[in-house]
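Allow me, if you will, to draw on your knowledge of protein folds for a short while. I have a record of one protein: its chain in single-letter code and its fold written as C-alpha cells. I should value your view on which stretches of the chain appear to form regular backbone elements. Thank you for your consideration; the sequence and its C-alpha cells are set out here:
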Amino acid sequence: MIAVTPAALPRVPLLRLRLTPRSVLPRRIDGVWWPHSRDLLAQLPQLLAALPTAWGDIVRVTVNGAAWSSGPGRMLVANQVVHLHKSAARHAPDTIVLLSPGHGRWDLLVVPPDATEEAAATLTAAALDDRAPDADGGA
C-alpha cells in the first residue's frame, strides 16, 4: 500500500471567484474571477469546474487575445470540448465570456493576476455592487 502524506499532494491554488447573486434584472457582469496567471489552459479548468451546474456545460470561452497566453483553439475539460476564442479589439481585456447552449451567456470581470489583494477587493466590490451609479447621490 502506498501512503500519501499531505506534503506529497500537489498544491492547487484556491479559486478566486465571486458570482453575483441571482436576480431577475439583467447585469453587465455576472461575477469576478481573479486567476493566478495569464495561462488560460492552466486556469480555465478550475474555473469551469467551480461554476454552478445551472449554467450547464460551457462550450465556448471568449477572451481578449492580447491579455492571455497563446494556446490552441480548443481544449478538453472534464470530458467536454471547450472552444477557445481569442478576439482582438471588440472584446474587453478585463472580461471573459462563457457560453452554454440552451443555458445562456455569462460575463466575468477578470482581475489581473498580479493585482494586490486590496486592488482585487476594490474591483470585486465595484463589479458586484447592485446600486445604480448615482444611487448614493453621487458621493
